[in-house]
Write a structure and sequence with these properties.
Number of strands of chain A: 0
Number of helices of chain A: 4
CATH class of chain A: Mainly Alpha
Order of helices and strands of chain B: HHHHHHHHHHHHHHH
Number of strands of chain B: 0
Shape of chain B: globular
Distance between the termini of chain B: 38 Å
Number of domains of chain A: 1
Shape of chain A: flat
Radius of gyration of chain B: 21 Å
Number of domains of chain B: 2
CATH superfamily of chain A: NADH:ubiquinone/plastoquinone oxidoreductase, chain 3
CATH topology of chain A: Methane Monooxygenase Hydroxylase, Chain G, domain 1
Order of helices and strands of chain A: HHHH
Strand content of chain A: under 5%
Helix content of chain A: 55-70%
Helix content of chain B: over 70%
Distance between the termini of chain A: 55 Å
Oligomer: heterodimer
Largest sheet of chain B: none
Number of helices of chain B: 15
Chain lengths: 121, 345
């Protein structure tokens, strides 16, 4: 039989075919025009008004702060999962260690909260 | 009873034996079997989504005291099929200023990520494509890739509304991913395994929803936000952002986005019933896969109900609810579970 990761790899390859197949099927079915579409049709839709400038503008720093905090906690998740799997085997000592770890992160969350990083302006 | 129970697993074994009997090598038989399973999953997904879209329109209609679709077929049940055919015939428009590569890849990636979830999600007893020791971690990490696809779509469209929707989607989805991952930790601590078959097997006597009620509530809320559904659908708030990241998409690409959204919904509901509601355990008059889908469909209906009943939540409230309430609560639940396990083991 197949290795687990091998099976997932084959599954991924098969799945990549699916959207390609869907788009190709749609291409077969839809009417085709020889003429190129005019400029108005290829404009982006911004409520019917001609768009002014590009959309790729500078964005508020708030999003970046959330991303930073997320990164912190996501890494924590990676550490917590193996700990949770072995939790019942490892006993009180590991529990205490994780308590310290979570405590430090909670402190970080509290600091971010106090500094207003969690506030949406 | 046994025949229906083993309908799919037995069929799989029979096909495998037949391929071996044709003197094919082991690995080739396994690959062909995997292909057939994949085909079945794609079929189930497409049929499921067609039913679900009709169901959602019908239910939302009744909730808002309208009739919903009622022209095509009895109760309008062919409406989605007609819509699909219409979408297939639509012209494929790519905005001139768009980033073409990202624009084209985004919907494909979204559906790939959504279907990949079914590689590990259980659909019944012994009915998962792969049942390996990291299933749950795989589920969480693959599910979080959907954020990237939405952002690629929003950024690639070169539309201010799309970009704003995509930014909101990213901010919201990464914020709710943390409580989602934390709320599953309690279950992992009790079972000591990330494998779905073991997690479900551990619930033979008592469902985890009774042992982990807080985790279930935080999981459910976080999942609603991860799916961009219900009261948390700020990324595609129609009244202000036209359709968020989906604005510029037409025809099949747009259909792929929607297909992926409903596929995600079904996957998350299957996961929910597997982790918290005993998975395939149930009275024996129905086969295991039927129980799995009945439970999943119950949660899907709850998702519909919530979406069409509650008004949309403001963006700042949404973010603060995650970081200031859900994250501390789900972390506290992990600690509570730890203490409880240590004391009452």
């Amino acid at each position: 039989m197949l290795n687990h990761y091998g099976a997932i790899g084959i599954f991924l390859v098969l799945t990549i075919i699916f959207p390609i197949g869907a788009v190709v099927t749609a291409w077969v079915f839809r009417p085709k025009y020889k003429k190129k579409p005019n400029d108005d049709k290829q404009l982006t839709y911004e409520c019917g008004v001609d768009p002014k400038g590009r959309a790729w503008v500078r964005f508020r720093v708030n999003y970046f702060l959330y991303a930073l905090i997320f990164l912190l906690f996501d890494v924590e998740t990676i550490f917590l999962y193996p700990w949770a799997v072995r939790f019942q085997v490892l006993g009180w000592f590991a529990f205490g260690e994780m308590l310290v770890f979570i405590g430090i992160l909670a402190l970080g969350l509290w600091y971010a909260w106090k500094e207003g990083a969690l506030k949406w302006y | 009873m046994n025949v229906i129970e083993n309908l799919f697993t037995g069929l799989g074994a029979m096909i495998y034996d037949f391929l071996i009997w044709l003197t094919l090598p082991d690995w080739l038989a396994a690959v062909i079997l995997l292909f057939l399973k994949w085909l079945l999953i794609i079929l189930v997904v497409i049929v499921d989504v067609i039913i679900l879209i009709w169901l959602e329109r019908k239910i939302s209609g009744y909730i808002q005291q309208r009739l919903g679709p009622n022209r095509l077929g009895p109760g309008g049940c062919f409406q989605t099929i007609a819509d699909t055919l219409k979408l297939m015939g639509k012209e494929d428009i790519i905005p001139r200023t768009a980033d073409k590569v990202l624009f084209v890849i985004a919907p494909a990636m979204f559906i790939i990520v959504a279907v990949m979830l079914y590689a590990v999600v259980p659909m019944g007893k012994d009915m998962m494509i792969v049942d390996f020791d990291l299933s749950m971690l795989f589920f969480i990490s693959v599910a979080s890739l959907g954020t990237l696809a939405l952002f690629m779509g929003g950024w690639g469209s070169d539309n201010k509304w799309s970009l704003m929707g995509a930014m909101r989607a990213v901010a919201q989805m990464i914020s709710y991913e943390v409580p989602l991952a934390f709320s599953l930790l309690g279950v992992v601590m009790i079972t000591g395994s990330l494998q779905f078959s073991e997690i479900v097997a551990a619930q033979e006597n008592i469902w985890f929803v009774f042992l982990q009620p807080i985790a279930f509530v935080t999981y459910f809320i976080a999942a609603t936000a991860e799916l961009n559904r219900g009261p948390f659908d700020m990324p595609e708030a129609e009244q202000e952002l036209t359709a968020g990241p989906y604005t510029e998409y037409t025809g099949m690409r747009w259909a792929l986005f929607f297909l992926a959204e409903y596929t995600n919904l079904v996957a998350v509901c299957l996961m929910c019933s597997a982790v918290f509601f005993g998975g395939w355990h149930g009275p024996a008059f129905l086969p295991s896969w039927a129980w799995m889908f009945i439970k999943a469909y119950f949660f899907i209906l709850v998702f519909f109900w919530i979406k069409w009943t509650l008004p949309r939540i403001r963006m700042d409230k949404l973010m603060e609810f995650s970081w200031k309430f859900l994250v501390p609560v789900s972390l506290g639940n992990v600690l509570l579970t730890g203490v409880g396990l240590m004391l009452f083991r």
